[in-house]
Write a structure and sequence with these properties.
Layout (H helix, E strand, L loop, with lengths): L2 H12 L5 H15 L30 H14 L9 H11 L3 H12 L30 H17 L6 H8 L15 H15 L13 H10 L5 E2 L19 E2 L1 H11 L11 H6 L4 E4 L9 E4 L7 E8 L6 E9 L5 E9 L5 E6 H4 L2
Parallel strand pairs: 1-2
Antiparallel strand pairs: 3-8, 4-5, 4-8, 5-6, 6-7
Helix pairs in contact: 1-2, 3-4, 4-5, 4-6, 5-8, 7-8
């Protein structure tokens, strides 16, 4: 929001005659309305970080020092006086540690506190994202670094891990419209505001918009994304497609073979959010995939094994010969070296001709 606009509006409103407490009340209401696009109300502990990650809200795979510089430049341009300027490296490292897109963290901070210059942060140090405590009141932090890392961990642990992998889904819990502590209806501005900020960030800094895979790197991006699921236990977690997020090995989550491949493709924007394929739907013909011959197999493609009388299985191809009696390397959720069933990279013996090969249609466009 442009605060010069707010100033001009307040000046025009001030021209209306008023007196006593009624005038004060009117001014308060005006100020609340003027700042409604920047500040939101929360429910107890359910700050923006109450409550896994996929799509553009998980941490992009190719962030580097230049990405951090770009994020700092965005912060400086958006709010020149922001104390978060210079913390781009911290945002990137925290995002990589907890697998949260740093652009999301900055977008929320811009909505909540105008990047650390307004609101609760003035009385509760470093609380740029409006985090409240269970007992009421706002949290304080000893440094920006502590606050940023807490923010990333909380977003992953309470929102993204719960399956709230879009800004709209986060807003439903963090800033619900119609909440009792939102008498002026300000929460309706939270989702549009955060989305607007997020879009502005990835427009200026494309590296944070991970759904755009660089030309010629589709397979590489798929393999890098698959590796993030390493050690998640094989099995069904609530639904066929497994956990709604990338998880760390310490998390108590499970995912089956096609749930794993579905998540990896969805994370990278190669399939729509909510896409949940199975070996049966792949073999029947999936609009997001194209069947290819074995001779054209490339890194990141899917291989479905379907020998009659045996359980079907889908894997992500890494390297090797897929022809009869050959061996090739894959990422999959299934039995791994040592006997454990989990997500891992392993060598498999070819089941040709009882296997088919598929590529994401969007990878054909890269």
């Amino acid at each position: 929001m442009d605060f010069s606009d707010i100033k001009s509006k307040i000046s025009s409103w001030w021209a209306f005659p008023c007196c006593g407490c009624g005038c004060f009340g009117l001014i308060i209401i005006i100020l609340i309305m003027a700042f409604s696009a920047t500040f939101s109300q929360h429910v107890g502990e359910q700050s923006l970080l109450d409550g896994g990650v996929g799509g553009e809200l998980s941490c992009p795979t190719e962030l580097d020092a230049q990405s951090a510089v770009c994020l700092d430049n965005y912060i400086k341009k958006a709010v020149p006086s922001s104390p978060l300027y210079g913390k781009g490296v911290t945002f990137v490292s925290a995002g990589q540690k907890y697998d949260v897109n740093p652009a999301l963290m900055v977008a929320i901070g811009q909505q909540e506190s105008l990047l650390g210059t307004r609101g609760a942060v003035n009385s509760h140090p470093h609380n740029y994202f409006g985090m409240t405590k269970k007992g009421g009141g706002y949290r304080s932090f000893t440094s920006w670094e502590e606050a940023i890392n807490y923010h990333a961990d909380y977003l992953y642990r309470v929102y993204l891990k719960e399956g709230r992998d879009t800004i709209e889904k986060i807003g439903e819990k963090y800033c619900p419209i119609g909440a009792e502590n939102d008498p002026y209806g300000l929460n309706k501005h939270w989702v549009p505001g955060v989305k607007r900020n997020f879009k502005a960030i990835i427009t200026q800094c494309p590296a944070f918009g991970q759904t755009t895979i660089l030309a010629g790197k589709c397979g590489q991006a798929i393999i890098q994304q698959a590796a993030k699921y390493k050690n998640i236990v094989y099995g069904v977690y609530g639904s066929h497609c497994g956990p709604a997020t990338i998880g760390r090995s310490s998390d108590n989550m499970k995912i089956d073979c096609s749930g794993f491949t579905s998540r990896v493709y969805r994370d990278l924007g190669l399939a729509p959010q909510g896409w949940c394929e199975t070996t049966a739907t792949i073999l029947a013909g999936d609009s997001n995939l194209v069947e290819i011959p074995a001779s054209q197999i490339q890194q990141g493609d899917l291989i479905v094994s379907f020998k009659p009388g045996q359980q079907r299985h889908v894997v992500i191809y890494v390297s090797g010969d897929v022809n009869v009696n050959s061996k090739f390397t894959v990422w999959h959720s299934g039995q791994c070296p040592g006997g454990a069933s989990k997500v891992c990279k392993r060598t498999r013996k070819s089941r040709a001709p009882d296997q088919k090969y598929f590529r994401a249609k969007k990878c054909l466009e890269k």
